[in-house]
What does this fold into?
Amino acid sequence: MINALRFKEEISSLLDVLYESQKDNIEATAQAMKECIEAGGVIHVFGSGHSVGLGIDIKNRVGALVPIHIMEMTDFVTKGGISPEEFTDKKNIFERKPGVANKLYELYDIKPQDIFIVISNSGINGIVIDIADLAKKNGHKVIIITSMKHTLAEEPRHPSGKKLYEFGDIVIDNCGPHGDALLPTDSEAKVCSVSSICNNCIAQAMAARTIELLKADGFELPVLTGDETHDNELRKKYEGRA
Amino acid sequence: MDIKKQYFELIKARIDDVYVKQNDKISKIAEMFGECMDNFGVVQLFGVKHGEEFVNELNYRAGGIAPFHALRIRDLILKKMVNQADVDSGEVYNDCSLIEKFNEIYDLDDRDMYCLVSFYGNEPTLIEMAKRAKEKGQKVVGVVNRSSYDKCGGKLLDYCDEYLDMDSKDPDIAFDLEGTKVGQTSSTVANVIAQMLTAEIYKYFVDQGKKAPVLLSANIKGADVHNNSLTDPYGRRVR
It folds into this structure.
């Protein structure tokens, strides 16, 4: 029987599995974020498709870290000279394309102390892999958030034959099932996806832990407080970067 | 307790609470969505700011139901029909002609209904959308944060047939670390509500003895064929 109650129960159990299996990886990420911020760095977040939600969730609200920069897919069009027609294709061809990521990467002011968080449930598409590869080649720490069940079940689509998790200094498994949907039905399609929920929990937990670590170090917190003067000054400090 | 653990525990408690308080409404709204889809209608989604995360959770999603469509400001930016600066300043949410712009670029149909998502439910553009839909006899569901809505005197629900409460604190703060406000829960909880809705829409179709139009992850081999078979009959009306 599929209903709201069933989903509630299964997602709660999954969150237990996620926390227990990934707490050390989330902790390591928070440490890396703390070190990056203390060195004046910015955390660049990139995810294609629905994965971009994670970045949005931890940005631009009271209690959120400012030195987080979301690499937007739409920047390809608004700043990167890709035509809307090529970008808004109906068949998801664009996000599978290898070799266009450098156009996005080069749009940003990236400094040596910056780190990258790259998110993709399947971890097989061109752009996410190229971004992770570019960041690594430029000497940045790369954190990957992916579904290991999904990525291991699919053939690679990238010309290198590699998958996203292979580029991670730290890999966080969001513990989602292959295909992202949680509840089996009587046909092949499962229903109710979990990656946004799991990724949000990962992102929120690591952001909260980062702030806690910064606070313990006595570092002036780059966190939005809702006070307009404070928040504007903070945004100004990171202008053009985050 | 470890703050990471605290976050996970907080979310689980919020999910339990939301289920108890909102389950009846969730199934009622799922039924409205299901009936609309049964009549070859599409549920048009529009979200203000972080409300867009709720929209993303329902629209063209792996394990999701097919006949949803998102009205996206991003599409208007790409077509140069709104300015990025107006989006950044929030001015775009005062633009009552937004629905006309959406009408120009999308294939909106009288059989469709609307699901409008906003923490405050007081944005003129949103209220105009709801009003117009009501005038045409289309159903409208609002998703708001009731405490925020009441505080700012929202008007959206005056034009809604039914509504869901995100049931988040205002301001939405997960922790207070000795005076430092840290983290949020509303989006995560909103995503869970969206998935509970998905489960209940699925149930609606099963209860009608019909096959639910469930999408597969685009990153599974063969998914494109399956998904296109669900969306092709709608032409430009979905995706």
